[in-house]
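User: Some background: our group keeps a shared notebook of sequences we're curious about, and every so often someone picks one and asks for a predicted structure to add to the entry. Today it's my turn. The entry only has the sequence so far, pasted here. Could you supply the structure so I can complete it?
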Amino acid sequence: LADEAITWAADGDVKSEVEEAARLLSIDALVRKYCGNGAQEFFRVNDPTHGIRLVQYVCRHIDLPEVLDDAFVLCDAFSSTVSRLDTCVSLLQRVMVAPDNNMTSRSEHCASIMAEIYRRDETLAKRVSERIAGFCEGILQDCRRLILQSIFTTEARRQAVVASSSACAILSVGASRNSASLELLKEFEKMSKLQLGCGVFLTLEELRDSAYSAQIVYDLLKPCVDLLVSQKDSLRLEDDSLRDKLKPMIASARHWSAILCSSPTQVSQVWSRAVGLAASHIAKTTENYASLLLLQSSGVIGERNGRSSFHSIMSVALSLCARSFAEARTLSNSQ
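Assistant: Of course. Here's the predicted structure to add to the notebook entry:
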């Protein structure tokens, strides 16, 4: 009735009075709905903090289907103190950190809210996506620091997974309409796959650093390094049993290397560099054949794929030479 009265009002002053009455009625209805019938006696429309707190309280009710509608009504009613952008971001943040309910996952819930925001206001939705992406990146940075310091590692990993999956869900809604969202989506998808698939937790900055990628793949090759360092007897026999054990480990590391990198050229460069680091480490600590076996099994020697492979092979050769010189010096000093 209030909306119809506004359209009927011909005089400007009358229209303003009707609009204010409609605003007060909408606020009163939502105060009663969320806070109870007696709450309106204590609510002061002219107090800006009351409006802000009411919007915050409404955003806590994330499982109500109409929560976004109600939040927008209050944003319009308190437009001078409450913004739609901040309210949407706050609502999505609350959904992200809430436990899953029985009907749907929270990432799907975030996507449905984001789709509704896009339906109402595409410009607003793009700004919300940017803010949420920044919020998720901040969570990943905090979690990365905790993981590196071995503090609350389990919880840090869980929160990082939530941040990545939520960012993927939210950015996927607008990816077809926004090239920036599409690029961010691809990056968050990579991080989510690495988290769930091989337990690698990165920040966006680390993901974008091609020099750091080789260190990540080197870490993925550590099971191969540990195997070769520990199997000295098998190395002396030079049978195929050790090579067979290495194959699935190398295949797994190569698979995640391909996901980590953005192009076949980068995959080849990062892979060769990481294998070179691993083989050089092995060359310094165990039988000569061990480092050569890793180079062969990884395909670095067979492919001869450019400068990176050459540098990897040379680094192993130099490591073997340095080890030989050290052993010869020790032998000479002992005589």
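Suggested note for the entry: The mean pLDDT is 80. The chain is about 80% helix and 0% strand.
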